[in-house]
Amino acid sequence: MQALELLNDKLSSYLSPPEVKKVLRAHKFAERSHEGQFRQSGDPYIVHPIAVAAILADMHMDHESLMAALLHDVIEDTGATKTQLSWRFGKTVSELVDGVSKLSEIEFATKAEQQAENFQKMALAMARDIRVILVKLADRLHNMRTLGVLKPEKRRRIARETLEIYAPLAQRLGMNDIRIEFEDLGFAALYPLRYGCITRALTKTRGHRNELVSDIKQAIERQLGLDHIEATVAGREKHLWSIYQKMKTKHRSFKNITDVFAFRVVVESVDNCYRSLGVLHNFYKPVPGEFKDYIAIPKSNGYQSLHTVLVGLDGVPIEVQIRTREMDDLGNFGIASHWLYKSGIESAQGNDRRANRWLKGLLEIQQQAGNSLEFIEHVKTDLFPDEVYVFSPQGEIIELPTGATAVDFAYAVHTQIGNTCVACEINGQLSPLSETLQSGQRVRVITAPGAQPNPSWLNFVFTGKARSAIRHFLKTQQHDESVDLGKRLLDRALNSFGSTYREIKKSQIKHLLKETGAATFESVLQQIGLGNRVAYAVANVLVPENKRKPSSPKLDSPILVDNADGLITSYARCCHPIPGDLVLGHISPGRGLVIHRDSCKNLNDVRSNAEKCMPLSWSPTVKGEFPVELKLEVYSDRGIVATLAARITEQDANIDQINIKELDTHSSNINLIISVKDRIHLANIMRRIRGLKSVQTVNRIKN
């Protein structure tokens, strides 16, 4: 009753009487629904929803959020349904409650999969209404505060999930107060011994520190007062999780971390923020490279402040944050400040827009992810708080996480730009796509029509959006290529039974799906293309023996090779085939079609097997660059490698690899892998190389 009275007082301070009445009606329904239910602490269950609503009331959330907070467990834990809630409290409240409710009806293979599915469901609801996550964060916060009654194993699992997902999520939404509490409570539950050690060490040093903090605080206030700047100065103590993380990542002792003193200076206006900075830089010497202006360029979660590090008396480092009162509230409440400032101050609205932009990106990742575990993996990479700020050629600021590359930048601008990017310029200089970006750089992405993502990009991209977009493209591309190859292989197999792919009837497909147990005909074609099903075996089921006609004259018509590198078509490294060579195709399980030269010794075992090996032909329109290996015997003249490279470059070819082996004091063997367009291109290069005096022989390596 006392908790309810306290909640009532908080509500009455900012909600209208009719709104308070609606919230109390939701409490009555929740109390009735949870009757007879108890928490593991022994308290009646209703204590939890009231506490969650109180946390939201401190943020001045609207009445619908508070109703959802009181009702957030009724769908999951009682007989109440979403329809009932919708009828009694309106569609908005029922949608909020449903968004926070877990998926309890579905059986999951693993706990991780269940958590991932629940998070994915919540993320989708969040994208429809941001208040879902605020109710969820308040729910998680109260659960973390009452974690002590659970078994150690469950306690650790909840704490780990909070530290990995909910604390970064609170940070992403700018809710600093909640983030700090999540981290310290999670730290205490996950590593109780380490938590205890740091707490004791901090208590021991507190007395001496308090004196120093008081002296520095008074000095700052006095200095600002001389310049007629009204300010509230507060010494901030680093929270425990932050100390532990710094000790771990920077390999520093506890003393080195706590030697840094942190202060927050809150002033009345943005103008006073910059004036205060000038005063403090005059009073104490600033540390070079440690100044950050988040007022001019806010963080992606809307956070604004000036950060600087000063050298105080006796060389003591002092961290200072300077901000206005609104910025302070925004920094503490984040997205919730949208409700705190009902009139909608500009910063709060900007914060709201940023959160919605991030949620939109989350939706895009969700649509492209293969499953919930992949989705949560992408989201985790996107929750890192540190950012770099780079500029587009038009001067627009793009926020990216620290560690992002030009490919991440391209996908942040637009998915299509990411998919077709081929190169980039950083500050006007041509740079590798894998180069890590730094704040303040100007990035221009160069695109080319017909270009597509390279699978190797997955080794260096950092953002969830880029990773999910590349994976989605490659999956789609691989699917399309394998289905296309499957059609061609099946057509060839059907030819031997006097039929063709075009003559297949629906009844034959129905019979095939029944026999193979496959879901769709397309999936069968994909399996053939990937080499996981034999085309002849499928043709055998489609055309029974009694319906076969004499073999068609098109039986040996070769499949055309029409691209340089596909996801299903690959080129054997043993013989390096190039356009113009006689080639054979080998169906390899999981890899699809591997192309070899007709003379390749590695095909000797399967050459006569029509199911595994088949003639191929180069398409007249084939384009691209193909690797080929050359062996040269040369006299060991000074500068021979540079001369060789110049000759090859003149012929518009690249050297991919070079190995030099000395035979004796006068001669050497040089093995080259170069990229060529076809046999004619190769012949021209070899002729140019033979023209060099130092070259004795040039041969193409066949196997």
Helical run tally? 27
Cα gyration radius (Å): 34 Å
Terminal CA distance reads: 85 Å
The number of E-state strands comes to 20
Structural class call reads alpha+beta
Extract low-pLDDT stretches. 103-108, 553-557
Q: Indicate how many domains the architecture comprises.
A: 5
Task: Report on the biggest sheet.
Answer: 6 strands, mixed
Question: How would you summarize this macromolecular structure in one to three sentences?
Answer:
With 703 residues, this protein is of the alpha+beta class. The N and C termini lie far apart (85 Å).
What this model shows, in words?
The protein starts with a helix and ends with a strand. Strands 1, 2, 3, 4, 5 and 6 form a six-stranded mixed sheet that branches. The protein has a five-stranded mixed sheet with strand order 12-16-14-15-13. Strands 18-19-17-20 form a four-stranded antiparallel sheet, with helices on one face. It has five domains: 144 residues, Hypothetical protein af1432 (Orthogonal Bundle), CATH 1.10.3210; 146 residues, Beta Polymerase, domain 2 (2-Layer Sandwich), CATH 3.30.460.10; 76 residues, Ubiquitin-like (UB roll) (Roll), CATH 3.10.20; 148 residues, no CATH class; 75 residues, ACT domain (Alpha-Beta Plaits). A hairpin with a 3-residue loop joins β14 and β15. It is of the alpha+beta class. About 2% of the residues have low confidence. It is built from 27 helices and 20 strands. 50% of the residues lie in helices and 16% in strands.
